[in-house]
Amino acid sequence: MAILVRRRVACSILSAFLCSSATARPASLPPLDAATVIQHIDAAVQARYDTVLAFTDIEHYTVFRGKDQTHPVAKMTVKDTYRRGTGKTYTVLSQSGSELVLRLGFKPLLENEKMINEPGNLPRSWFNSENYEMKPGLDGVEQINGRNCIVVAVAARRKAPNMIDGKIWVDEKDYSLAQIQGVASKSPSVFAGTTHMMRQYQQIEGFPMATYARAESDSLLFGRTVVTIDYSDYHLELDSHR
Question: Can you give the pLDDT of all 242 residues of the chain as single tens digits?
């Protein structure tokens, strides 16, 4: 039973954040309204999908249990290959630690990521107004890794382990994702506690790509589990006609 819960908790990750205090919006920029912000967010999400034909990156997965955040129980490094219209594939480069976590935690996690990124499923995971109710904060901006960002409260329009109720931060200039943070709108298991998720993004060749993700769950039966993902070494193929 414990392994089943670990597997389902791991599969809830899709899944980010270091905020400074809010600052006033520069007077040189035009005034914002909620509908316009949401429209620009939707357009930025669609533009990324339309322009990024393919990419590869290296992903480092680590699992911690209980209060120990120093000694992981399992680690895995994979090469992620994405192509629009096809989805994702993963190549395991290295792995170590608990065989049970590797087999019943990481393997289902990667299979779940592949399923989410299938062409027919991918749009259902986007951070846009079709999937989320959005309420932009228009009074000021927050600095996220040197970027002025608008904070947007989001609530998932359907319940799913890979969707959140929480906040997203979008760049004030191009409305691309800088950060997400919240709780899974649906628990991955009746035995698992609330899953807190976060993900950070950086602009790579003009588009937001994940650089760090973290998911934490805590249940009375199985205690605290933390899964982290570090992303690096991106190589993008872009549509030159856009």
Answer: 433 334 444 444 333 333 334 555 555 455 679 999 999 999 999 999 999 999 999 999 999 988 888 899 999 999 999 999 999 999 999 999 999 888 888 888 899 899 999 999 999 999 999 999 999 998 889 999 899 999 999 999 998 888 999 999 999 999 999 999 999 887 765 445 688 999 999 999 999 999 999 999 886 666 788 999 999 999 999 998 87
CATH 2.50.20 fits 2-238, yes or no: yes
Nearest alpha-carbon partner for 178 in 215, 156, 152: 152
DSSP strand pairing (52-65 vs 223-238): antiparallel
Supply the pTM of this predicted model: 0.84
Q: Residue 171 corresponds to which tokens in the numbers above?
A: 């760049």
Amino acid at residue number 157: R
